[in-house]
Amino acid sequence: MTEKTLLQRYVHILTVVACYWFVSITLVFVNKSLLSGAEKLDAPLFVTCYQCIVTVAACYAIRTASRIFPDRISFPSLQLDIQVIKQVMPLSIVFVGMITFNNLCLKHVDISFYYIGRSLTTVFNVLMTYFILGQKTSLGAIACCGAIVGGFYLGVDQEDAAGSFSLAGTIYGVLASLFVSLFSIYTKKILPVVDGNIWALTFYNNVNACVLFLPLMVIFGEIPIVTSFQYLSSINFWFMMTIGGIFGFGIGYVTGLQIKVTSPLTHNISGTAKAAAQTVLATQWFMETKSFLWWLSNMVVLGGSL
Fold first, then answer.
1. Checking CA distances to 166, which of 39, 63, 154, 201 falls within 20 to 30 Å?
2. CA–CA distances in Å: residue 269 to residues 6, 35, 56, 86, 240
3. Do residues 240 and 33 lie in contact, with contact meaning Cβ atoms separated by under 8 Å?
């Protein structure tokens, strides 16, 4: 009985991780198309905000479906609680930083380099776990962090040698890594506020994000860019935007679920391994040729992360 329960637990964890990989990789390719494709919109904050709006709409849609089919679909109440909004806000600020810097990094670098650009997540996770949670780490873990930093440096050097290095994209990638680490840690701390319900946390997080993005879009001058966008009436553009929003909804849920069934550190390791697979897929999809040292940097980062 114990072995069966343990087996079921492992199958559940593997299923969650597989869902995270599929949703995350698809979202990266969709967002890359929106930010750098034929109908690209030079307003990453607006793109990200729209995805948050779609997520909130998706929550309401599933809540409605749960009322119609209560035996098949379970979804929490979506009545806005001001106290919960306030308590979730610190996580939402980190969430906005995470998805914004992710998209900014993706806008400036190729998908193949996106992995190296955001490879410092595990390093930041070890640092933040110590400074925020007060948990010490082993010398072995510190050595692995050193390997990751070395792999990151080699990857940047090889990207520069290939003539495709972006300083802005790399800086955004480092900041994205920091916020991904913070998001993992704060998710564990904030989950009890919504009784451990991932759906509720996803809803409140994205409601807060929609509000937070509005002044940011004004400050960074994206409103005129959006209103004058030549493909604003394109059905294909809005279709891709909505698909990105749906997968953005999915990644918010599966990320929280993966953290819940594993741990913040395991989540970041899974994300790093997923990104390695994503790199291989991207080089094949875009028919890119990379040097031996470039691939070595990826292997060093992956080895250090695992």
1. 39
2. 22, 27, 28, 30, 29
3. yes
Torsion of the alpha carbons at 290, 20, 251 and 132, rounded to the nearest 10: -90
The predicted-structure confidence for 245-303, as pLDDT tens digits, reads as follows: 898 888 877 887 888 788 777 776 787 788 778 888 888 888 888 888 888 988 888 88
Whole-angstrom Cα distance, residue 179 to residue 100? 10
The dihedral sign for the CA sequence 63, 65, 69, 71: negative
CA–CA separation, 21 vs 12, rounded Å?
14
Tokens 């290095």 belong to 165
Cα angle 219-223-224, degrees, rounded to a multiple of 5: 115
Backbone conformation region of residue 300, classed left if phi is above 0, alpha if psi is from -120 to 50, else beta: alpha
Structure tokens at 2: 């114990």
Mind listing the pLDDT tens digit for each residue in 54-79? 999 999 999 999 999 888 888 888 88
Most distant CA pair in the chain, distance: 63
Length of the chain: 306
Per DSSP, the three-state class of 144 is helix
The structure tokens listed for 47 are 């793109």
Residue of 176, 175, 171, 185 lying closest to 126 (CA atoms): 185
Neighbours of 77 (CB within 10 A): 10
219: tokens are: 């400050």
DSSP 171-220: HHHHHHHHHHHHHHHHHHHHGGGGTT-HHHHHHHHHHHHHHHHHHHHHHT
Q: Do 52 and 202 form a contact (C-beta atoms < 8 A)?
A: no
